[in-house]
């Protein structure tokens, strides 16, 4: 699977239900052994089984956008334990997994597979032209 946006996220950006600059945006490390991505039908964080959610970042900071490209400061997942993670999902945090919209699925970012050992896991956002993602 290549990095991609969830279809419902595109709709939510267009109708104003997701504000990159105004909403709380987080990342979740995902164990793909417990989650099969469905970009067309998965809409909320609850679509990703709890067992597949290895760790959640704090809210992204330094969020910017220009020419349809979303960017942010490099986040860190702190004191991560659990299953290996092979993907990162970006989502809008609402406080309820059933209403927190999924935004982007990233599984093609260099050496993304990580095996947690209790240490922090930093995420280095691409410095290329598409940064985190491009609408």
Terminal residue distance: 18 Å
Number of strands: 10
The number of distinct helices, counting runs of at least 4 residues, comes to 1
Beta-strand content estimate? 25-35%
How many discrete domains? 1
What does the radius of gyration come to? 14 Å
What low-confidence regions span 5 or more consecutive residues with pLDDT below 50?
Answer: none
Please summarize the sheet with the most strands. Answer: 5 strands, antiparallel
Q: Could you say which structural class the secondary elements and strand pairing correspond to?
A: mainly beta
Shape: globular
Average pLDDT metric:
93
Order of helices and strands: EHEEEEEEEEE
Give the neighbour order of strands across the main sheet: 1-8-7-2-3
Give a structural overview.
6% of the residues lie in helices and 26% in strands. The chain has one helix at residues 7-14, and strands spanning 4-5, 25-30, 53-56, 64-66, 69-71, 76-77, 87-92, 102-106, 121-122, 133-134. The two termini are 18 Å apart. The longest helix has 8 residues, at 7-14. It has one domain (4-134). The protein has 135 residues and is mostly beta strands. A hairpin with a 2-residue loop joins strand 4 (64-66) and strand 5 (69-71). A 5-stranded antiparallel sheet has the order 1-8-7-2-3. A 3-stranded antiparallel sheet has the order 4-5-10, with no helix packed on it. Strands 6-9 form a two-stranded antiparallel sheet.
């Amino acid at each position: 699977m290549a990095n991609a946006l969830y279809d419902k996220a595109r709709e939510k950006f267009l109708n104003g239900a997701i504000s990159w600059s105004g909403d709380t945006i987080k990342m979740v490390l995902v164990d793909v052994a417990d989650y099969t991505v469905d970009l067309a039908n998965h809409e909320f964080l609850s679509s990703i089984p709890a067992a597949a959610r290895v760790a959640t970042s704090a809210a992204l900071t330094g969020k910017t956008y220009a020419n349809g490209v979303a960017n942010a400061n490099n986040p860190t997942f702190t004191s991560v334990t659990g299953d290996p993670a092979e993907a990162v999902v970006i989502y809008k945090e609402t406080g309820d997994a059933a209403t927190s919209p999924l935004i982007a699925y990233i599984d093609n970012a260099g050496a993304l597979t990580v095996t947690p050992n209790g240490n922090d896991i930093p995420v280095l956002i691409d410095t290329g032209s598409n940064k985190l993602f491009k609408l």
